[in-house]
Amino acid sequence: MTSTTTPLTQLSAWKSLTQHFTAIESTHLRTLFEEDQTRGERLTAEGGDLFFDYSKNRVTDETLKLLIQLAEESGLRQRIEAMFSGEKINITEDRAVLHTALRAPRDKTIIVDGENVVSHVHEVLDRMSAFSERVRSGDWKGHSGKRIVNVVNIGIGGSDLGPVMAYEALKHFSQRDMVFRFVSNVDGTDFAEAVQDLDPSETLFIVASKTFTTLETMTNANTARAWLLAAFAGDSSAVAKHFVAVSTNAEKVSAFGIDTANMFGFWDWVGGRYSMDSAIGLSTMLAIGPDNFKAMLDGFHQMDEHYRTAPFEKNIPVLMALLSIWYSNFFGSESIAVLPYEQYLKRFPAYLQQLTMESNGKYITLSGNRVDYTTGTIYFGEPGTNGQHSFYQLIHQGTELIPCDFIAFGKSLNPLGRHHDMLIANVLAQSEALAFGKTEEQVKEEGTPDWLVPHRVFEGNRPSNTIFADELSPSILGQLVALYEHCVFTQGSIWQINSFDQWGVELGKQLAQRIIPELESSETPDLQHDSSTNNLIRRYRATKEK
Ligand SMILES: O=P(O)(O)OC[C@H]1O[C@](O)(CO)[C@@H](O)[C@@H]1O
């Protein structure tokens, strides 16, 4: 399917932004703040329970007006409506994109292919809740009658990163007499370390895979089954009590040997990286309980409603996306740092890497043409204050412009003396330092010797957003994740790419399937790769045989 949209760079807002950029490029944030004393209050927005301060960005009212015009001219409103209503906007896979249906209230109706998907969503949620209650209460017993205390999620990509991130983020709300582990890598070390201190008779494996064909997950699931059966003298009837599956593929689940009664389904209109609030979140629900999981879904839904209904100039995901496009496409900035000042969000940047880069790392437009502008910003990050002692040097004084998203909370879930005040002082100090820097005069006034002055100057003018909420609750986590999901969709819509396929991961998978037998065969293989790959294969085989 092709579409005949006006190319992005031909839009009138794009052309105006290109001109406008030359005026803004040399304007310092110091000037913008001096000229408008109300800027810090004015350039803010609220959505759900999130407060968004975007005043420390290199924009004027004119820039914002043009960026919003760009969103309008790009057809963003229609794209949002098309997504929420279940149109098949994932054109390269002919699928609807309905992660928003996963958190729709029970009484909503969204029809896809003649079916109300919301009722299916709630059927699965009810089954997940009943199962979670049984496991958490000890009613669900292992094969030898022991209570399940260990839960190991086996999955990769979207079937791992969301569950791990959510478990870590909501650990404060988790059932502490249970152990949760996550195995993703085909590197055997991942499995070996995850189970080394676990008793198989007390362990439940969740095999989480949308397709149920993924090499890593199937390899780990087979290893897990062998590990379990070794403890039960090969009695395969033990599998029923120790394995459940989360998948869209019932056929493959049952071929693996898991009873589909122990399967929790989802649908092809849920992308892997948009699935942590589907049955893929079973480990999250087991950890925090159905009520907290529901609170998380309500949080997602609040942000969905904000995205769908707030005017663009007050719409946090839209503003965030437009600002990122401003830096990426006009300032030539390549990355964004996400810096949560909340230890529980330590896996949030890793989660966002897949969400953002697997979604928008595309150079072909929806019309099938190569883009002539940059797409797919690189997202990275670490929790503060740790990152400050690592890569912030480059953000402050490097030659790259790296816009930052700071995330901070009014209250700590673990209030300890002065810790939280210090943490928050640091996040505020960082965004202040980045924006305003320290001038040559200021450095000299401190008595710095002349030769050292240039090293100690901070030119500033480095943009950031601050996302602020009361405290990290299940609902706030849902709101934060939905915020980034919708930011990614807005970016992709403006860039005119399909944020919901991932063909770019296929080639490596195919080539690995070809190489596996070449590494394993007892015969010397007839290698037909390039000379580098052939040589490395020979070296590996020689090492293996040593
Ligand atoms: O859930 P599955 O089907 O095992 O896929 C895992 C991951 O692999 C990918 O397809 C990429 O290889 C991701 O999009 C997905 O989240």
From TrEMBL:
<dbReference type="GO" id="GO:0048029">
    <property type="term" value="F:monosaccharide binding"/>
</dbReference>
<dbReference type="InterPro" id="IPR001672">
    <property type="entry name" value="G6P_Isomerase"/>
</dbReference>
<protein>
    <recommendedName>
        <fullName>Glucose-6-phosphate isomerase</fullName>
        <ecNumber>5.3.1.9</ecNumber>
    </recommendedName>
</protein>
<dbReference type="InterPro" id="IPR035482">
    <property type="entry name" value="SIS_PGI_2"/>
</dbReference>
<keyword id="KW-0312">Gluconeogenesis</keyword>
<dbReference type="InterPro" id="IPR046348">
    <property type="entry name" value="SIS_dom_sf"/>
</dbReference>
<keyword id="KW-0324">Glycolysis</keyword>
<comment type="function">
    <text>Catalyzes the reversible isomerization of glucose-6-phosphate to fructose-6-phosphate.</text>
</comment>
<dbReference type="GO" id="GO:0097367">
    <property type="term" value="F:carbohydrate derivative binding"/>
</dbReference>
<dbReference type="InterPro" id="IPR023096">
    <property type="entry name" value="G6P_Isomerase_C"/>
</dbReference>
<comment type="similarity">
    <text>Belongs to the GPI family.</text>
</comment>
<keyword id="KW-0963">Cytoplasm</keyword>
<keyword id="KW-0413">Isomerase</keyword>
<feature type="active site" description="Proton donor">
    <location>
        <position position="358"/>
    </location>
</feature>
<dbReference type="GO" id="GO:0051156">
    <property type="term" value="P:glucose 6-phosphate metabolic process"/>
</dbReference>
<dbReference type="InterPro" id="IPR035476">
    <property type="entry name" value="SIS_PGI_1"/>
</dbReference>
<feature type="active site">
    <location>
        <position position="509"/>
    </location>
</feature>
<dbReference type="GO" id="GO:0005829">
    <property type="term" value="C:cytosol"/>
</dbReference>
<dbReference type="Pfam" id="PF00342">
    <property type="entry name" value="PGI"/>
</dbReference>
<feature type="active site">
    <location>
        <position position="389"/>
    </location>
</feature>
<comment type="pathway">
    <text>Carbohydrate degradation; glycolysis; D-glyceraldehyde 3-phosphate and glycerone phosphate from D-glucose: step 2/4.</text>
</comment>
<dbReference type="GO" id="GO:0006094">
    <property type="term" value="P:gluconeogenesis"/>
</dbReference>
<feature type="compositionally biased region" description="Polar residues">
    <location>
        <begin position="522"/>
        <end position="536"/>
    </location>
</feature>
<dbReference type="GO" id="GO:0004347">
    <property type="term" value="F:glucose-6-phosphate isomerase activity"/>
</dbReference>
<dbReference type="GO" id="GO:0006096">
    <property type="term" value="P:glycolytic process"/>
</dbReference>
<feature type="region of interest" description="Disordered">
    <location>
        <begin position="522"/>
        <end position="546"/>
    </location>
</feature>
<dbReference type="InterPro" id="IPR018189">
    <property type="entry name" value="Phosphoglucose_isomerase_CS"/>
</dbReference>
<comment type="pathway">
    <text>Carbohydrate biosynthesis; gluconeogenesis.</text>
</comment>
